[in-house]
Amino acid sequence: xxxxxxxxxxxxxxxxxxxxxxxxxxxxxxxxxxxxxxxxxxxxxxxxxxxxxxxxxxxxxxxxxxxxxxxxxxxxxxxxxxxxxxxxxxxxxxxxxxxxxxxxxxxxxxxxxxxxxxxxxxxxxxxxxxxxxxxxxxxxxxxxxxxxxxxxxxxxxxxxxxxxxxxxxxxxxxxxxxxxxxxxxxxxxxxxxxxxxxxxxxxxxxxxxxxxxxxxxxxxxxxxxxxxxxxxxxxxxxxxxxxxxxxxxxxxxxxxxxxxxxxxxxxxxxxxxxxxxxxxxxxxxxxxxxxxxxxxxxxxxxxxxxxxxxxxxxxxxxxxxxxxxxxxxxxxxxxxxxxxxxxxxxxxxxxxxxxxxxxxxxxxxxxxxxxxxxxxxxxxxxxxxxxxxxxxxxxxxxxxxxxxxxxxxxxxxxxxxxxxxxxxxxxxxxxxxxxxxxxxxxxxxxxxxxxxxxxxxxxxxxxxxxxxxxxxxxxxxxxxxxxxxxxxxxxxxxxxxxxxxxxxxxxxxxxxxxxxxxxxxxxxxxxxxxxxxxxxxxxxxxxxxxxxxxxxxxxxxxxxxxxxxxxxxxxxxxx
Length: 575
Known about the structure:
The chain is α/β, with parallel strands linked by helices. Among the domains are: 5-52, no CATH class; 185-283, no CATH class; 455-525, no CATH class; 532-565, no CATH class.
């Protein structure tokens, strides 16, 4: 029998007559389609159709995640802690070790639920008083204070979403990496620097979309290659320079003439590589061991649609997920089933509109809950059931109140929508959404998003970035005590000891801009995570791809791309 009969009856009046149609996005005013698949998923998961287009929903959820910028802030007892919440955030927070301990009891902040009052107004009051952890971290990790959203990390500095890694700095969403710096979306790699989407690599530098390779510089989409420089779309090659085959002796002579310890030399070659990459042909949709799959970067999956999906089934409009089944509009989840419009469920079952709830079942509109089930509008609970706004109810009373609340929310157009921008404790430009969906201050504020100015980081005493020695050999340990002003953002940045040691070990010039600038630059190279349709420039097959229409070089479907790479097919002539 239904636990929420009044809500189910009201929802059926919406879902039963629903047919595919065009809607106007409530945020952007642009038209978007409600497809037959959208309706199928809504009926299956018992939610109304969304009021905003997919990219808006992706961006909105991601904006609730902290990003690359962390802050050292004072606590009431005079101590300080590193946190993702900027000084202007309304969020109260505790040191992570205290928040995760038995000392913290979020139930003391319990509030009475009032179905007649708008839900988000009630959530706003709760959200302002319940402390959050200063950082979302794995307590078992070591020596990684200045990092966030990581697991099994040892000696990590300023890392984001890094898993099973050691001795790394400024790595973002990387897995099983060691002795590396400035990597984004890389896996199983060691002694690498400034790479994007490189896997199973060793000593690969300034490169993108390479795999199973070693000793590469400024390479794009090269697989099973060794000792290559400035190359694109090569397979099983060695000793190549700008895609020209050389002898081993010729290659060594050319590479030895390039001084990678000189920042000017590095930046000149970076500009040259970007010029070459813009003209290189690309694979528009990477799909491996998958069937009935639409989208980009999908692996070992069936009946899915979205971006960066692994080992999933019946997942629709998913992004950056793994092990997802029968879910719709889920993002960043792992081991997720029957979930909707949720962010970072790891794992989760039957959750809707939740934010970073781990090992939970049947939670709605809840945040930072662990091992809970049947809770609504809760924040920070652990091992709890039948709670609303952190207040404990009997099972019978819980379902009665939830039924009334969901009916009222449905009537007001609230139910099914994620938390609004006004409820976000994270400033947009300090969130991870800024990396994946960049936006300027004026545009963000117009949409009701908060923006942090980083005014404090722009005030202090600092030297110009031009004072950083151009050559690594001229860099002394005293640089660790100096502060420099970023020429792009005007923000102050410093070098840390593990970073300097890595550059000396690799004989690579130090960077000359703020770390966040470097990270946003790498994020831009990944292409947007939302999808668009375009034809293969060879066979004209329509494909879903992240590569935007503004990209002028040939974009090929996977079949044509592989044939061109191995020489079985001619590359189409650019128009």
